[in-house]
């Protein structure tokens, strides 16, 4: 008997088999097409090649770079000239290493956000030898996190608030002595000494003048040796630097012993480290770590802060309107305090225009011109994320059953710019200077205009202290030092710059005026101070 139900069932089964067969054929076909595209695609459409001249093997453009370093236009001139020739992105070769200067907010974001993962710091041997293998600057990621956490506490707002009145007292006395002498003095020298003494006081409570002089002399030998050839032979800069480092480490260790013996107690950074003596090893720094980082902090903090102060004075001198506005704010703060009272951290909080002056100074001066990293793998920067550049992603797409998704992703991947190609081992320098001078972010970028900071900045477009896991540890201290200086200078004095020469110091990695910005102070008359 004809069984209609069974026949229909049989027909359905046959058709389903046909459909399944057809689906498999389509899927395999699509997979084959995709694999073929994938085979062709990464070779044909890698990231764009970065223009630039690599020159001779090893030497590359080393001589041109050294010429810029030795010139009074400063080492950034090397970068500036290549940008004019090749455009924003360029590559070069210096001492055997390929360098790329990352000029954009998007590029900076990629590098900062992948610090320690895709990029890392790499120091010259002499630089690493001078600061020591336990320095925060040199340790690997696993140690860096723990160390940074332990070092950060003494730089908190709370700690900086103890530093403010101490530094204010010292600074006021120094300025008074210069006022009384009536002589011209170099702001750079002045701020180097003031910053050095301030940092040493905060870290290890050394205030004795002759010890400070000896320490500063040794720190200068160490910093000078950072770019020297690592040759441990008497007479070389490297040798002098290493010997100076030994003396500094001995001084720090002697301090540690005194503190442990109870011969000396102080409320400072070192004491806060030693208070952890009884803690488990992962919750404290050992002595070698403490001494290397004391040295690191002094080196990282002194010349950066001093240069920033010098540029502040120079920019304010060239922009009288900004100077007057700042003076008015600072006089108001002075009038609201009892005569002769020292500044407190809270006073800094009410320096709204002063903070903008500090920000604008750091934007324009670019104390650290670029932030060097090394690419740990081949990658692209500034391009959009590419989905199909990894075999595992392709496999996922094949397994997924949504052809529309495949096609969309493939199209996106093909037509969205793939970015600039970086090879493993290349030096990738985040060019803070170019980012801070970008007219698309900062209107009229060469004009000193603190009020531009009335508005919020785009993320990653303002980076004078870096960003990410390696952000400057001394931000609070640096800003506080600058604000205290600005307060005492503008609320107590007017000044004239005695040498207008704009040329820069030779062989300096931090841009500083060759003249050191000499100024002469004139005391503000009492009526300006008391007028409200
Ligand atoms: C105006 C003054 C300063 C400027 C412009 C400045 C700028 C910077 C920048 C840009 C970085 C990050 C560099 C990079 O990512 O490669 C940095 C790191 C650092 N800064 Fe500062 N700095 C200043 C003052 C200070 C002070 C006063 C101290 C401490 C006393 C300090 C301690 C450090 C340390 C320890 C690091 C390394 C952080 C790490 O690798 O985790 N800096 N600084």
From TrEMBL:
<keyword id="KW-0349">Heme</keyword>
<keyword id="KW-0503">Monooxygenase</keyword>
<dbReference type="GO" id="GO:0004497">
    <property type="term" value="F:monooxygenase activity"/>
</dbReference>
<dbReference type="GO" id="GO:0016705">
    <property type="term" value="F:oxidoreductase activity, acting on paired donors, with incorporation or reduction of molecular oxygen"/>
</dbReference>
<dbReference type="InterPro" id="IPR036396">
    <property type="entry name" value="Cyt_P450_sf"/>
</dbReference>
<keyword id="KW-1133">Transmembrane helix</keyword>
<keyword id="KW-0472">Membrane</keyword>
<dbReference type="InterPro" id="IPR002401">
    <property type="entry name" value="Cyt_P450_E_grp-I"/>
</dbReference>
<keyword id="KW-0408">Iron</keyword>
<feature type="binding site" description="axial binding residue">
    <location>
        <position position="472"/>
    </location>
    <ligand>
        <name>heme</name>
    </ligand>
</feature>
<dbReference type="InterPro" id="IPR001128">
    <property type="entry name" value="Cyt_P450"/>
</dbReference>
<dbReference type="GO" id="GO:0016020">
    <property type="term" value="C:membrane"/>
</dbReference>
<comment type="similarity">
    <text>Belongs to the cytochrome P450 family.</text>
</comment>
<protein>
    <submittedName>
        <fullName>Cytochrome P450 85A1 isoform X1</fullName>
    </submittedName>
</protein>
<dbReference type="GO" id="GO:0020037">
    <property type="term" value="F:heme binding"/>
</dbReference>
<dbReference type="GO" id="GO:0016132">
    <property type="term" value="P:brassinosteroid biosynthetic process"/>
</dbReference>
<dbReference type="GO" id="GO:0005506">
    <property type="term" value="F:iron ion binding"/>
</dbReference>
<dbReference type="Pfam" id="PF00067">
    <property type="entry name" value="p450"/>
</dbReference>
<keyword id="KW-0560">Oxidoreductase</keyword>
<dbReference type="GO" id="GO:0010268">
    <property type="term" value="P:brassinosteroid homeostasis"/>
</dbReference>
<dbReference type="GO" id="GO:0016125">
    <property type="term" value="P:sterol metabolic process"/>
</dbReference>
<feature type="transmembrane region" description="Helical">
    <location>
        <begin position="20"/>
        <end position="41"/>
    </location>
</feature>
<keyword id="KW-0812">Transmembrane</keyword>
<dbReference type="InterPro" id="IPR017972">
    <property type="entry name" value="Cyt_P450_CS"/>
</dbReference>
<keyword id="KW-0479">Metal-binding</keyword>
């Amino acid at each position: 008997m004809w069984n209609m139900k069974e026949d229909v069932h049989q027909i359905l089964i046959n058709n389903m088999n046909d459909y399944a067969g057809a689906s498999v054929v389509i899927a395999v076909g699509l997979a084959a097409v995709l694999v073929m595209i994938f085979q062709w695609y990464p070779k044909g459409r890698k990231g764009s090649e970065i223009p630039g001249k690599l020159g001779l093997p090893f030497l590359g453009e080393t001589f041109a770079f050294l010429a810029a370093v030795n010139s009074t236009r400063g080492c950034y001139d090397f970068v500036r000239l290549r940008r004019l020739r090749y455009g924003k992105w360029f590559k070069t070769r210096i001492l055997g290493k390929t360098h790329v200067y990352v000029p954009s907010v998007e590029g900076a974001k990629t590098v900062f956000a992948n610090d320690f993962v895709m990029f890392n710091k790499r120091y010259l041997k002499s630089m690493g030898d001078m600061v020591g293998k336990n320095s925060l600057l040199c340790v690997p990621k696993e140690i860096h996190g723990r160390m940074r956490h332990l070092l950060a506490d003494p730089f908190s707002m709370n700690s900086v608030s103890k530093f403010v009145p101490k530094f204010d007292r010292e600074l006021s006395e120094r300025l008074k002595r210069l006022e009384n002498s009536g002589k011209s003095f170099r702001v750079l020298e002045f701020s180097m000494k003031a910053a050095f003494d301030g940092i040493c006081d905060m870290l290890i409570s050394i205030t004795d003048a002759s010890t400070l002089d000896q320490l500063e002399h040794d720190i200068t030998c160490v910093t000078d040796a950072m770019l020297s050839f690592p040759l441990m032979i008497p007479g070389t800069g490297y040798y002098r630097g290493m010997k100076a480092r030994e003396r500094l480490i001995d001084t720090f260790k002697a301090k540690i012993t005194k503190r442990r013996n109870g011969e000396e107690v102080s409320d400072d950074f070192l004491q806060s480290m030693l208070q952890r003596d009884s803690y488990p090893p992962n919750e404290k720094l050992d002595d070698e770590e403490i001494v290397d980082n004391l040295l690191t902090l002094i080196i990282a903090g002194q010349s950066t802060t001093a240069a920033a102060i010098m540029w502040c004075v120079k920019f304010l001198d060239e922009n009288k309107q900004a100077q007057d506005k700042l003076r008015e704010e600072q006089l108001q703060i002075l009038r609201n305090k009892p005569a002769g009272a020292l500044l407190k951290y809270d006073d800094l909080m009410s320096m709204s225009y002063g903070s903008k002056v500090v920000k604008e100074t750091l934007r324009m001066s670019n104390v650290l011109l670029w932030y060097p990293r090394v690419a740990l793998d081949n990658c692209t920067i500034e391009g959009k994320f590419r989905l199909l550049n990894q075999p595992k992603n392709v496999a996922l797409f094949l397994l997924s059953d949504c052809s529309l998704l495949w096609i969309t992703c493939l199209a996106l991947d093909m037509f969205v710019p793939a970015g600039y190609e970086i090879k493993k081992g290349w030096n990738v320098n985040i060019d803070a200077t170019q980012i801070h001078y970008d007219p698309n972010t900062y209107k009229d970028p060469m004009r000193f205009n603190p009020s531009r900071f009335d508005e919020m900045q785009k993320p990653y477009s303002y980076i004078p202290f870096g960003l990410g896991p390696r952000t400057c540890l001394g931000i609070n201290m640096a800003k506080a030092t600058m604000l205290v200086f600005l307060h005492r200078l503008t609320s107590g004095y007017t000044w004239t710059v005695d040498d207008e020469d704009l040329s820069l110091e030779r062989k300096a990695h931090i841009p500083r005026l060759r003249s050191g910005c000499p100024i002469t102070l004139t005391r503000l008359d009492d009526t300006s101070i008391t007028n409200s």
